[in-house]
Amino acid sequence: DTAVSQTPKYLVTQMGNDKSIKCEQNLGHDTMYWYKQDSKKFLKIMFSYNNKELIINETVPNRFSPKSPDKAHLNLHINSLELGDSAVYFCASSHTDSGNTIYFGEGSWLTVV
Amino acid sequence: DQQVKQNSPSLSVQEGRISILNCDYTNSMFDYFLWYKKYPAEGPTFLISISSIKDKNEDGRFTVFLNKSAKHLSLHIVPSQPGDSAVYFCAAGDSGTYKYIFGTGTRLKVLA
User: Which of B51, B87, B98 lies closest to A48 in CB terms?
Assistant: First the structure.
């Protein structure tokens, strides 16, 4: 059973399109995250939700909108995709009672052409 | 400004020897530190963590050392195995804010 699963794993789309990446965790965690790994391999936090509430928003363009329908899901919607959005996006989760160790999904490779 | 730095982009070690991966941080508010291993085309996998109240934590072949005064942590892998070949990321943060900063990674290659 995959603890943190995200779909799709690979996505190629044209500039200007709107796309979503879905994430689900079955670990019973109360905090979920989206990280972005860019071409230089920097792994940077984008958003964090705790119990469905946004707690971290790291100067991400407002074309990126996370949505957390419940504690087990955190989806990432991206409007008007740009070439620079091409990256690997990692979903992750943690639990405040477990030292906040973060567990990652396998990543979603987004290529904007 | 990179608050967490891994200054060695790569490291090669013979099988059976010790691998030492280093990480430096600048923010004295950081109180929780983690190491992750990442294989190509996979997500980072949690390896070991340490809280700032400790200076050492051990789990099997993996030991993390924390030197708070130097703002430095290291991951020791003994003995190193070919399957340990991967990119290793350290992460540091304030456990109360849910925000962890990752280093840029060190690619470890264990030679058989």
Answer: B98
Q: Which residues, in sequence order, are CB contacts of B80 under 8 Å at separation 6+?
A: B13, B14, B15, B16, B17, B18, B19, B108, B110
Q: Which two tokens stand for residue B35?
A: 């190491």
What is the per-residue pLDDT across B22-77, written as a single tens digit (0 to 9) for each? 999 999 999 999 999 999 888 899 999 999 999 999 999 999 999 999 999 999 99
Interface test with B, best of A32, A38, A41 (most B CBs within 10 A): A41
Tell me the three state secondary structure of residue A79.
coil
Whether residue B44 lies within 8 A of chain A, CB to CB, comes out as yes
Residue bearing tokens 């957390």 = A68
Query: What is the pLDDT, as a whole number, of residue B78?
Result: 97
Size of interface A-B (CB pairs under 8 A): 60
Counting every residue written for chain B, the total comes to 112
Q: Say yes or no for a CB contact (<8 Å) between B99 and A45.
A: yes
